[in-house]
Amino acid sequence: MVAGALAQSQAPVYCPDVAPILQTHCLACHRPGEIGPMALTSYAEARRSSVAIAAAVARRAMPPWFANPAVGHWANDPSLSTAEIHTLAAWAAAGAPAGRGGCQPSAQSKSIWNIAPPQAVITMPGAVSLPARGEVAYTYEIVPTGWRQDRWVQMAEARPSARSHVHHAVIYVRPPGSSWLKGAPVGVPFTAATLGVSRASLWTDADILLVYAPGSAPEAWTSNGGKTRGKLIPAGSDLVFQMHYTTDGHAAVDQTQLGLVFNPTPPDEQVLTLQLTNDHFVIPPGVSDFRLEAHGSLPGGATLLGFFPHMHLRGKRFEYNLIAADGKPRPLLDVRWNFFWQRSYLLAQPLPLKAGTVLQAVAWYDNSRANPHNPDPDVAVHWGDQTTDEMMVGFFDVAVARGLDKWKYFAERHPAQ
Ligand code: HEC
User: Fold this and answer.
1) Whose CA is nearest to atom 42 of ligand 1?
2) Which pTM value belongs to this model?
3) Contact (Cβ atoms closer than 8 angstroms) between residue 266 and residue 350
4) CATH classification of 114-267, choosing from 2.60.120, 1.20.50, 1.10.240, 3.30.43?
5) Sign of CA dihedral 231, 338, 278, 304
């Protein structure tokens, strides 16, 4: 009895021991309107889930994170320390005691945004109606900003309203004078078919503002190493939402919102999202370890900021490597692929790279029956938009001098390369 009472009194309590851990590591998803299956914002909610919490964190299933801990350090790694895992376990084992009270979730957790309160919220003007079944072609919507000045974006977050239907979204910046999607309607959803053009003709090299996929976290190109950074939206640009929707047996309507936080002054460096892509492949049926590779060299000096790998349901692993002068790959990121958790991995220490540096992306696929997500292990798989096709895209962000947009940066390429 006495020993039990003693253990109880020494056990961690919700306030002040547990609440701050949940606040920092869990509430981004476990609050009303977010993707977690239950809210953990109050003591009562946390107590109700205390045993499941202890179990999920002990397995390191929560918070979700897929990078091999032996490779790289990540600014956005949400993983708990061993001490925090012990605190949650001991709290649950002691019956989830309340403690002092006064641990209300902070104001930030009450906002719907995971970034700082946005200075601009851009909503797709036309809602997109999604059927209950079948494939939905890539759906585009052009949204004019109407901004008379260049704006520099420091943080960006996309919030689909029909979240479970969004396979991915890419938000592009279409500067004035661009010929991309010329003649397409503004402020209403359209597809290649409704425009009467081929899908290939909608291809673009426009700057990417943001990539959103299931489980992805918002982007923040904040200052680091004394340098401020941001992505440029030139005056008078349109934003183009490229939405890839999936169906799940229930009709839905989506109207994705984009929240933006601007740099207070033009940043020192400009962030560009580049990609290593391999779209020429056939993954044979039944093969469990199919390897694909893509590489490219940097046309100019740049600081590497982070990665965003993208594959579909047969994806298994994704690596980024730096190829040293001796040809040896130096690992930068190694992730276990989970289609339902597509995330960015932001380097804790941005990496300055010289012109000519070779970056390599390597992807592995499991097209066998052993892959529980495999839609069909009996077919050969090619590049394609739909989830049942495959992709191999290694997005990565670099910072370059302000004023170097993607085209100027690539025009820098040394003639000898
Ligand atoms: C990036 C979003 C995200 C974060 C951060 C996150 N969760 Fe989750 N959590 C989810 C989603 C989505 C699910 C349901 C799907 C799944 O299990 O993968 C889930 C499931 C769970 C479950 C299982 C519920 C059940 O019993 O089936 C528990 C428990 C849980 N989370 C606890 C936590 C705790 C504790 C933290 C912080 C230490 C945390 N989660 C952080 C998104 C998140």
Assistant:
1) 36
2) 0.88
3) no
4) 2.60.120
5) positive
Pocket test for ligand 1, best of 17, 24, 26, 82 (most atoms within 8 A of CB): 26
Question: What interhelical angle do 82-93 and 50-58 show, nearest 10?
Answer: 150
Fold match, 114-267 / 268-417? yes
Whether the link from the prior residue into 63 is cis, omega within 30° of 0, is yes
What fold characterizes domain 268-417? Jelly Rolls (2.60.120)
Ligand 1 centroid to 63 CA: how many Å?
Answer: 6
The residue whose CA has the least distance to atom 19 of ligand 1 is 36
Distance (angstroms) between ligand 1 centre and the Cα of 348 equals: 24
pLDDT in tens, 215-239: 777 888 876 677 899 999 999 999 9
- Ligand 1 within 6 A of CB of 62: yes
Q: State whether the beta carbon of 181 lies less than 6 angstroms from ligand 1.
A: no
Provide the 8-state DSSP code for 22.
Answer: H
Q: State if residue 29 touches ligand 1 by the CB under 6 angstroms criterion.
A: yes
Domain boundaries, given as residue ranges, for the chain? 2-102, 114-267, 268-417
Q: For residue range 233-274, what is the model confidence (pLDDT) as tens digits?
A: 999 999 999 999 988 899 999 999 999 999 999 999 999 999
Token pair for residue 234?
Answer: 């030139």
